[in-house]
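Collaborator request log, item 7. Partner lab (contact: R.S.) asked for a structural prediction of Spore germination protein to inform their binding assays.
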Amino acid sequence: MPHQEEFSVLFNLFKFLKKKGKQQQEKLKQVEPEPHVNEPQAPGPLSLENVMEEFNGCSDLTRRSLPILKAEIVYFGHLVDKHVFERDCLRPLENIRQDELGTLLRQSQFNEAKDAKSVVNGICKGDAALFVPQGVYMVHAYGPETRSVEQSQTESAIIGPHDAFNESLDTNLSIIRRRIKSNRLKVKQFEVGEILKTKVCVLYIDELANMDFVNRMSERIQNIEYSGLYDNNMLLQTIEDFPSTIFPLYLTSERPDVAVSKLNEGRVLAIMDQSPTVVIGPTSIFEFFTSPDDYYGRWAVGTFLRLLRYVAFLLTLSLTSMYVAVTTYHYEMIPQSLIASLTESRSRVPFPPILEALLMETTIELLREAGARLPAKIGQTIGIVGGIVIGTAAVEAGFTSNILIIAVAMSAIASFVIPSYTMSGTIRVIRFGLIILTGFYGNFGFMFGIALIIIHISKLTSLGAPYTIPAAPIKPVDWKDIFIRGPFWLLSRRPTQSRPPNPQANKMKK
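Returned to partner:
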């Protein structure tokens, strides 16, 4: 059979590429890492001259002298809270004499430093260093300007809370603490980046979260060896089980209500300073199709919207590919009443269906990127006007058919229905691969591509938990909050994937 021969060729090619990939990984492992050169040396003895030498070239460093007390204060003015600095450090020092200095330094805001390295690190973190004859003392006055708590721009809320995380770690922790008023909310703090030294916190609720997941995420964060990470979306790529996969293995969100609900389910969160998102794990592929709005409305409406997203997922993944397969190989699948209009529509098109589909899909992606990068008002105009003008002109010029324009437009609209932007981007990339497979092998290529996707996601894990649960392994107890949004009295147990010590979520009766 010709299809069997094609399948054999594709299967052998897949095995060959997989073998080559393993060989390349083994070669990379055998290469010895080059020794680090020009590594920063530790500061010398604790003195003002050595500390100032470490900040040589830092013109934004502030140094204030108090001649009466023979004291020097060193700090970054843009990192300290001016009111806290005035209240806890500067004003008390200006109102005392030399013989009263020892009594003042015993107050709680003054912490004696032991070495020059801790002084340098403290100044970089927003502390003020006080150099006096009695020693060196650090005053915590960190308080840079931060963005206020606003509404999320990427996860719009129709009903429910409208606040969102911002780039301040302290603000984000306070938002969560205001919602979870319990001492069972635990926070582990780490520091990542050899140069940036960014704070990362791991959050979980004691006796609800599985400590295997907590320890696994903590260990992976501690083992990060990068010069610096700038956002949580970079962090999650360094702690994934399968870094080479195209599918997102952690859920990210800017909404505090999502973060709190996942903590209550027994999940583990990671929050990074200077990042407005949180990383949630473990997660399954089905959670990328859920929205917080599902729980704020009636359960029947939430179920309908959730099922609608799965339909949109199937449409955006297969609609353009099926057009290519049908118009290239399988005309018998076209309804007889539609054959005449389809033939007439394609009679002027000089390209084969695969090239026609790739051209229009690429055009849609260009319009999407242009609309996203331009200011909001201009971006909307570009998207609407560009789509109408280009679509109409392409049909009139004979570059494409009317039916493909409809298929591509429906596929693009369906991709916007998916709540997660990262999953939506993944599906857009997969769609191009399916178009190419169907262009060469028809329905067989489409089914082969779907089979590869299913095989791939079946082996994925998130923090060691199955990525496809509750479909594989089958856990029917979780289906009432995955494929549908059941009423609250039915959602009595926490998700199986998080393996919580206390699976009972609530005791509400019907």
